[in-house]
Specification:
Number of helices: 22
Largest sheet: 6 strands, mixed
Radius of gyration: 58 Å
Structural class: alpha+beta
Strand content: 15-25%
Number of strands: 52
Pfam family, one: Gryzun
Protein name: Trafficking protein particle complex subunit 11 domain-containing protein
InterPro entries: Gryzun, TPC11
Distance between the termini: 136 Å
Keywords: Signal
Oligomer: single chain
Organism: Jaapia argillacea MUCL 33604
Strand order of the largest sheet: 6-17-16-10-11-13
Length: about 1350
């Protein structure tokens, strides 16, 4: 990327020339822009002095220093601040997506000249030929048609054309000039007073002098203004020839801004210089920095439109040329077909039509980019790119490896970068990456046709450059601090919906399963599987790709170097000579380092279930590994070792054997070069543990063993005072260890048989390694069991040898070290089984803590410790116990955790009995007897814990009691004392259940501790620490107790209206707070049946009805008050006891009369259980609340009272009470008594009439006297009660059979003899009214006796 011209890559913006600002004396001209600088950089690209394209040189472009010197006049200081403000607006960079109206500012001299637009072509004349006519066409100095042009005759676009429009020709020209100001008049001196005549003469003289001075000042101002206007007019003419907008800024003092003649002078200057009327003349005085920034912003806003018009006119001019070229089918200029350079040589061919298309499209794209029209620029860049592809497709147009071919290739790469950048500006990441991949693919195909394929370093150099271009572009975009910073897409994998694996037995999937399968296929086609090459990654990925391509480039170059050694002169091309100057390894390190840093920067946040190390990923470790490999190739072995140490830690911990093996081999090579023999030994031992890949040969496998032996024999360690410890705790062990304890647990002082099997690897030979000692540790501080090598013994391929270690115990360990002799030589796949038994005097966990292998050779003493419980990664064999060696036979061990055994105390022997009589009754303390007998030979201290589980029953309320502890959950630490052998102890646990019946679960934990004094033995794991595990045994018993009701209660509730006389509102007693009207509310009759429902009988001591205060109900009487003499009494299962109580209910005392009223009392039953031995259990109390009541609610009601029986010819009374219980409406009542000749009564009283109006809450009573004239059940005369406020017309038959129309609503007449309501207020089948009786064919009757 560094070889690309910066002019072809920078973001183009409108150019503004600024002239006329004062420069400090120490300011120096800017240096020309370095073309080899990396264009993707945060450092702005400054424009410096350029040589003119024409023979006439142009003045230098200078830049002022922003730091003003001290003691400056205000206008010089203003110039410095203006320079700072303009320079801070915009910098020339590659990544500039901001579209604000900001110019690219270039500071120039006031006398700067623009390069010529056209040059006449050179002419040749001879003596015999007349002079040619003047040329009809003139061309630009940079046109391929100008012989003096660097593009003559077939060039495309040169970077100097971009430099011309960014540093030599502006779109607007801002000229700063100082407006002339006359010096202020001198102050008048004080004169001594004189005569009045002399004072008038002196005043007149002063006035004439002032007028003369003012005239001279005005004349001088007019002269200076004319000179300034002439200077502006000259610059205006030069700018007008190029279409450049000229703006003049006049700097004046604040005093001049208040001068009335300022407007006249400005008008004169504008007219004389020919300036435009719009945005062409400004006046600026020394102001603050904030006001100065606002001025800079406003002048750029005002000049933005003329700048856009300037570049638009250029685009139109180029478009006209392109159209003429397209219509004529070729170049629109008359040029010779083939020209021969002076002095002979190869004839040159002019630029082809395809080349002119590239020029025109590229120019229009640049002008559109100047205007900020990214979409238009992108379209023209794409057209130019397609034309370039067409040109590269023909070697006749662009012959390979020529100058124009190389220039076009650079142009194509730069245009491709422009296209990708414009796509990224619009956040079209997929299109940008697609174009980048397409560009690489197309030109890779072209390169193969040019003979620059994958086998050449040029191909991989160009390939790496393309990836680095994209990486630097993305890095610049993401590093930008503007609001339009590039946001890279995130690629989150989609989780497919689960597809049911079950299918019908017939083999046909159900439709729902097929639909889900189709949906999954649709998700896969829509992007469930993401191709990484089609997803834009962060820049670190492309730096990595560039590094890999650079490695390929180096490989190809080294291959050419090898051929050059054997065949001198094979590669003498300039490309090869330049390639020899390239430091490939430095470039690779730079690219890998950038990639590593960016991968670390773009690491996503860890998700649930992932730590930060996992999220950083394997790719970062792989990049670090490639960096280490590059350091190794560059012979920087110390740097490589540092990286290897850091990477190997992760690879060892995560068991990446395939990645660790090549790393260790390269690390070992670095150690060899550094001469570090101890590191070499460590790495060789670890390599033996890792083994080798299956692709390696047998000779390569034995090379590691041979190298280790050679190092041990030919060298000496740096220190010989102690062993060299090779820690393989995180690496693969040399052997495949297997530890098996036969029993999962044993008692104290009981031997535990074990076997330790060490199996040699099958893919590497270790038979020559000098193992001398094998130490087996059962604890860190316990002396090891040492096995010394016995010469003459060796385990062959696949053979099994057994080494007996004997019985190991704590007492023997205190006397000395156990030493055994055995075979310590293994061939491929050989096994050595170390078997023995170990015991412990204290409870602990017995296991083989560590195994240490010792090798001795010469001065080397190497110890290799490893954990035998960790197996090799590839080992998946089930543990087996060796039962026989000849032939080898094994017994499978069916435990997964067989590498250790638990040592525990001898269990205590107890006999526990739980005695109780099921089921338990609710509301009683249910006794459970816990009887414990010590059947052991030791004194045991017994403690009991009881846990009552929460019942899964609603309204359950339980608790337990034992000794003096009571709890609804856990009772802990109930002591039974020390029980000697053969003695038993019992205690009673009481369970109290209340609420609902159901099962109750109790856990009883019985803990026993030995009271014998401990001998304080030492633990085999930590011998200095006494054993802390107590001699305790715990036995758990679970008891499920079913709780049932001892007494079951059934209620039968009826309600009826009260017949008392209403007091009325006139009675003042009705206003008392505790007054209850006897005519209001209802009376409930509750019949309670109590039954002994349990399987055991009970003795009932008392049954009481306990009243409770309630504002809407009150207990009136109860029949149990007369039955108290019957208690105590025994109730056997099925026995019943009945009680009847009366309750008065006033529904008006509650907020909602429609709701039920809680019962105003409860039954309290005191009872005891009858035990099977005739005894009585503890006293229990059960309470049953009275049921809820609901009184009848009436509006208008008529109550009929008649005697049940009568005597013949004896008068009886008949009363009718009409009540109006409506809260707000009065009633107009009409009563009719319909007599029939067949009636059995003679009636004395009202036949038909209207009663007084009933107000709300009032009642009226009507009476009749009836004389029975028949015996038997005689029907009561029929009554009609009508409420005439209703507008409903009804037809009622009379006694004579005629119909009489009466208006009104029939009022319900209730026979109070048969009235009754259930608990919900519903009728229980009683006859309520005469109308209901007639409908049912029944009429109220009275029994008449003779």
């Amino acid at each position: 990327m560094n070889s690309y011209p910066a002019e072809l890559l920078v973001q183009l913006a409108p150019v503004m020339f600024i002239a006329g600002l004062s420069l400090p004396p120490q300011s120096q001209p800017q240096s020309p822009p370095p073309t080899a600088q990396s264009p993707i950089s945060s450092t702005p690209i400054t424009q410096g002095p350029q040589r003119a394209i024409s023979p006439n040189p142009t003045p230098q472009v200078v830049s002022p220093t922003p730091t003003p010197p001290p003691k400056l006049d205000p206008f010089t200081h203003l110039s410095y601040k203006l320079c700072e403000a303009f320079r801070a607006q915009r910098k020339m960079e590659i990544w500039q997506p901001d579209k604000s109206k900001v110019f690219q500012v270039v500071f120039v001299d006031k006398e700067v000249r623009f390069p010529p637009r056209k040059l006449a072509p050179p002419t040749t004349t001879t003596l015999s030929a007349p002079p040619p006519p003047p040329p009809a066409h003139q061309h630009s100095p940079l046109s391929p048609l100008s012989p003096s042009s660097p593009l003559y005759p077939d060039g495309l676009i040169a970077p100097i054309w971009i430099r011309k429009h960014t540093s030599l020709v502006p779109s607007v020209f801002v000229l700063f000039l100082r407006l002339y100001e006359s010096p202020p008049p001198p102050q008048a001196q004080t004169q001594p007073p004189m005569s009045p005549l002399h004072d008038r003469e002196r005043a007149e003289r002063d006035r004439l002098e002032r007028e003369e001075r003012r005239g001279r000042d005005e004349e001088e101002e007019r002269r200076r203004d004319g000179e300034l206007a002439g200077e502006v007019a000259i610059r205006k003419k030069v700018c007008a020839e190029r279409g450049v907008k000229l703006t003049v800024v006049l700097m004046a003092s604040r005093r001049m801004l208040d001068d009335p003649s300022l407007d006249t002078r400005l008008t004169y200057i504008r007219r004389q210089s020919g300036l435009d009327a719009r945005a062409s003349l400004f006046v600026l005085s020394p102001v603050t920095q904030q006001e100065l920034n606002e001025f800079v912003h406003s002048i750029q806003q005002a000049l933005w439109e003329p700048s856009i018009e300037y570049y638009t006119s250029h685009s139109k001019r180029v478009r006209r040329k392109r159209n003429r070229h397209a219509q004529s089918g070729g170049v629109g200029y008359v040029v010779p077909a083939i020209s021969t350079p002076p002095g002979g040589g190869v004839p040159t061919r002019p630029l082809r039509p395809e080349g002119w298309t590239v020029r025109y499209e590229y120019k229009m794209a640049c002008f559109a980019e100047f205007r900020g029209e990214d979409e238009v620029a992108l379209k023209h860049y794409q057209d130019a790119y397609e034309a370039l592809v067409i040109m590269f497709g023909s070697t006749a147009i662009l012959p390979p490896r020529t100058k124009r071919w190389a220039e076009a290739k650079v142009l194509a790469d730069c245009v491709s970068v422009k296209i990708c950048k414009l796509y990224l500006y619009n956040s079209e990441h997929a299109l940008a990456l697609s174009h980048h991949n397409s560009h690489i693919k197309k030109f890779a195909d072209f390169s193969r046709g040019w003979g620059i394929g994958e086998e050449t370093f040029e191909f991989w150099s160009w390939f790496a450059r393309q990836h680095r271009i994209l990486a630097e572009l993305l890095e610049a975009g993401t590093r930008s601090s503007t609001p339009s910073t590039l946001k890279l897409p995130s690629h989150t994998p989609l989780v497919p919906p689960p597809i049911p694996t079950s299918a019908p037995s017939k083999g046909v999937l159900p439709p729902s399963t097929v639909a889900k399968g189709l949906e999954l296929e649709s998700l896969r086609s829509l992007g469930l599987g993401l191709n990484p090459s089609q997803a834009l990654m962060h820049p670190g990925f492309y730096y990595y790709m560039a590094a890999r391509c650079t490695e390929k480039r180096r490989e190809r170059f080294l291959g050419v170097e090898e051929i050059e050694v054997t065949r001198p002169g094979y590669a003498n091309s300039p490309g090869y000579l330049n390639e020899k100057k390239v430091d490939h390894l430095a470039i690779i390190l730079e690219l890998y380092t950038k990639s590593y840093e960016l991968f670390k920067q773009h690491t996503p946040q860890p998700q649930a279930g992932h730590n930060q190390a996992q999220m950083q990923g394997r790719h970062m470790l792989w990049i670090a590994y490639r960096i280490a490999q590059t350091y190794y190739q560059a012979a920087k072995f110390d740097m490589a070792v540092r990286f290897f140490e850091r990477i190997a830690k992760t690879y060892r911990r995560e068991k990446w054997g395939s990645m660790l093996q090549p790393l260790l081999r390269t690390w070992y090579a670095c150690a060899q070069q550094m001469g570090d023999v101890e590191l070499s030994v460590r790495l060789l031992v670890e390599l033996i543990g890792c083994g080798t890949d299956t692709t390696r040969e047998e000779g390569d496998v034995s090379e590691i063993e041979e190298d280790l032996i050679v190092v041990m024999k030919s060298t000496a360690p740096s220190t010989i005072d102690g062993p060299l410890i090779v820690d393989l705790s995180e690496s693969e062990p040399i052997f495949e260890p297997t530890v098996i304890f036969w029993s999962p647990e044993i008692n104290v002082n009981e031997p535990a048989p074990f076997q330790l099997t060490l199996t040699a690897p099958t893919n590497i030979s270790i038979s020559s390694l000098p193992f001398t000692v094998l130490s087996i540790y059962f604890g860190e501080e316990r002396p090891a069991v040492t096995v010394y090598h016995s010469s003459g013994l060796e385990v062959g391929d696949g053979e099994v040898q057994r080494v007996d270690l004997g019985l190991l115990s704590t007492s023997e360990a205190e006397t000395g070290v156990k030493e055994v002799k055995g075979c310590l030589r293994w061939d491929r796949g050989g096994k050595v089984v170390f078997s023995g038994a170990v015991s412990s005097e204290v409870p602990s966990v017995l296991k083989v803590a560590k195994v240490v292998l010792t090798m001795r050779e010469g001065k080397w003493w190497i110890e290799i410790p490893f954990d035998p419980s960790k197996s090799r990664q590839a080992a998946l064999n089930n543990p087996k116990w060796l039962s026989s060696t000849k032939p080898p036979r094994y017994v499978p061990v069916g435990r997964s955790e067989c590498h250790s055994t638990n040592v525990r105390h001898r269990p205590h022997e107890l006999n526990v009995r739980l005695t109780h009589q099921e089921p338990a009754y609710l509301d009683e303390e249910y006794p459970i007897v816990i009887d414990i007998t010590n059947t052991d030979d030791r004194d045991l201290d017994i403690m009991v814990d009881v846990l009552l589980h929460p019942a899964e029953i609603d309204l359950a309320d339980d608790h337990i009691t034992m000794d003096d502890q009571e709890s609804n959950g856990l009772i802990k630490g109930v002591s039974f004392g020390v029980i000697p052998p053969g003695v038993n102890t019992a205690k009673t646990l009481f369970l109290a259940s209340a609420g609902a019946p159901g099962d109750r679960t109790i856990d009883i934990s019985i803990q026993s501790r030995s009271t014998a004094a401990p001998s304080q033995p030492r633990s085999p794991i930590t011998p200095d620490t006494p054993a802390a595990t107590p001699d305790m045994t715990e036995v758990l018993h679970t008891l499920v107790v079913s709780a049932v009701e001892a007494i079951k209660v059934v209620y039968d509730v009826t309600c009826r209206r009260r017949l008392g006389e209403s007091r009325g509102l006139a009675d003042l007693r009705t206003f008392d707070g505790d007054f209850r009207d006897d005519a209001e509310g209802a009376e409930g009759v509750i019949t309670t049946t109590m039954e002994c429902a349990g399987p055991w009988g009970v003795e009932v001591e008392s049954v009481k009805l306990v009243p409770q205060d309630h504002p809407a109900a009150k207990v009136i009487s109860s029949s149990q008050e007369a039955d108290q003499d019957e208690f105590p009494s025994e109730w056997l299962p099925g026995d019943e006891f009945c009680d009847i109580c009366r309750v008065a209910v006033w529904p008006d005392e509650v907020d909602n009369p429609e709701e039920s009223i809680q019962g105003p009392g409860e039954y309290e039953i005191t009872w005891r259980r009858l035990l099977s031995n005739g005894d009585r259990g503890p006293k229990s109390i059960t309470r049953f609340a009275l049921p809820s009541l609901k009184a009848p609610t009436d509006g208008l009601i008529a109550l009929m009272e008649a005697p049940a029986k009568a005597k013949l010819h004896t008068p009886i009374p008949l009363h009718l009470t009409i009540r109006n219980r409506h809260p707000s409406r009065s009633a107009n009542i009409v009563v009719q008594l319909d007599l029939d000749p067949t009636d059995g009564f003679v009636v004395a009283g009202l036949r038909s009439g209207r009663i007084p109006t009933l107000l709300p809450g009032a009642e009226e009573k009507i009476s009749w006297r009836l004389i029975p004239i028949e015996c038997g059940f005689v029907k009561v005369p029929r009554m009609r009660v009508l409420e005439r406020r209703s507008a409903v017309a009804t037809t009622q038959p009379t006694a004579s059979g005629a119909d009489v129309e009466v208006e009104g609503e029939i009022v319900k007449v209730v026979d109070v003899r048969w009235e009754g309501k259930d608990v919900d207020g519903n009728d229980e089948g009683n006859v309520e009214s005469v109308e209901a009786e007639e409908a049912a064919g029944v009429q109220p009757t009275v029994l008449v006796l003779p």
